[in-house]
Amino acid sequence: MKYLIIGAGGTGGCMGAYMTEAGKDVTMIARGAHLAAMQEHGLRMETTKKGIYTVSPVKAADMEHYKEQPDVIFVCVKGYSLSETIPFIRRVAKPETVVIPILNIYGTGGRLQKELPELLVTDGCIYIAAEIKSPGCLWQNGDIFRVVFGVRDPSEYRDVLAEVKKDLDDSGITGILSADIRRDALMKFSYVSPAAACGQYYDVPAGPMQKPGKIRDTFAALIKEIDILAKAMGIFFPVDMVQTNLEILDSLTPEASTSMQRDVKKGGSSEMDGLIFEVVRMGQQYGAELPVYQKIADELKKQGF
């Protein structure tokens, strides 16, 4: 199948590199110096799992110069850039194209489906710690690499989704075709949102959260509040999310941080609204009391966010 990955940062770039290595037909959409470096030298991967190596050549283009029609589109941009992808997807997609958003923000697939009613848009999420280290170079921090995706309505299932799972597995990426993507995406959100909120509130990377004490306790309290919110939404997690997410956190190197924190430090746009403030709004919507989230949101607003 022909794959298109919109966004070649830590998420999309690692997916593109692994799938290219496995011989899949995949093109990554990027721009600027990062795109130029990939086109000239390939994609340099610095990983804790597979060492340092370069995937070359890779197929990479900007939106303007991409002329193919993909079977599957992975959307791997930040939440604040999502709207920019919609006209591009409309231009390059064929009626059978499946769109799989892989974003940090919960509920992205449903919102994107409303903008692209002519296509099948699933929901999805990813477990990985990775970022652009420099143009043409990605740093994958930790061994976890898992993509979870699926349709919100079972009647929309297509056999192509099983082919996507197989291609991910063939590429060394654990592909999970979810029978309950609403639950499974919220399970992922129960890690990334507390990690971003706690890391930003205390201005720390993973290391201080990995040590017993106030910061780790705050991270755990935020996870518990996502569980409270989930129950209010009629969603019940099958595992202890505090234990599960602490294990994910502890698998990272101490210097790891969330993409939201890195964006904030750069002074540009960030996903803070979707990762923190939206949780408070959802709590109000579903009648769930989330005092730790409220405290952190209030403090961040005082700081001008």
Please provide a written account of the structure.
The protein has 305 residues and is of the alpha/beta class. 47% of the residues lie in helices and 18% in strands. The protein has twelve helices and 13 strands. It has helices spanning 10-21, 32-41, 82-92, 108-115, 160-170, 181-202, 206-210, 214-232, 241-250, 259-266, 272-286, 291-302, and strands at residues 2-6, 25-29, 43-47, 51-55, 59-61, 72-75, 98-101, 120-121, 123-127, 130-134, 137-140, 146-150, 174-177. A six-stranded parallel sheet has the order 5-2-1-6-7-8, sandwiched between helices. A four-stranded mixed sheet has the order 4-3-11-10. It has a three-stranded mixed sheet with strand order 9-12-13, sandwiched between helices. Helix 6 (181-202) runs antiparallel to helix 8 (214-232), helix 6 (181-202) crosses helix 9 and helix 11 (272-286) packs across helix 12. The protein is globular and about 50 Å long.
Low-confidence stretches: none
Number of distinct helices: 12
Main sheet strand line-up: 5-2-1-6-7-8
Shape: globular
Helix coverage percent of residues? 40-55%
